[in-house]
Structure formats: structure tokens, C-alpha cells
Amino acid sequence: MVVDIAHGLRPKWDTDKVQITARSWDGLMTEKSVPLAMLKCRVGDTVKATEQGLALTLDDRACV
After folding, report:
1. What pLDDT does residue 16 have?
2. Closest C-alpha among 63, 56, 55, 49 to residue 19
3. What is the 3-state secondary structure of 3-60?
4. Taking the model in full, what pTM does it have?
5. pLDDT of 40 above 70
6. pLDDT tier for residue 11 given thresholds of 50, 70 and 90
């Protein structure tokens, strides 16, 4: 589930990107940078991700 959408890690240089933060149902968290023009999700949306051990990876198509 998407828990936060914020300015990218380098807002001075990447003004067109946002940082998506997602959390799995068991508490694992991950982040992904997405161009603002391609953003297609909101906080609270459920997105596809893969959990392997303690790593959570968002699907390439998540939020775009």
C-alpha cells in the first residue's frame, strides 16, 4: 500500500520526480522514484510488490 508521496530525493535537480513510499501488510517498506507526469497512484492505493526475505521491491509498473 502507498503510504507517502513526496518530492524526490534531489528536488533541486529532479523537479519532475516524486518519491513513492510503500509498506507491505507485515511492515516492510520500500521507495521508488517516479516522474510526476507518469504518476498514477495516490496514498492508500494498493500496488504490486515482491517480498523476498526482508526486502520489498515495487513492481516496475507500480504507480506508472
Report:
1. 85
2. 63
3. EEEEECCCCCCCCCEEEEEEECCCCCEEEEEEEHHHCCCCCCCCCCEEEECCEEEECC
4. 0.84
5. yes
6. low
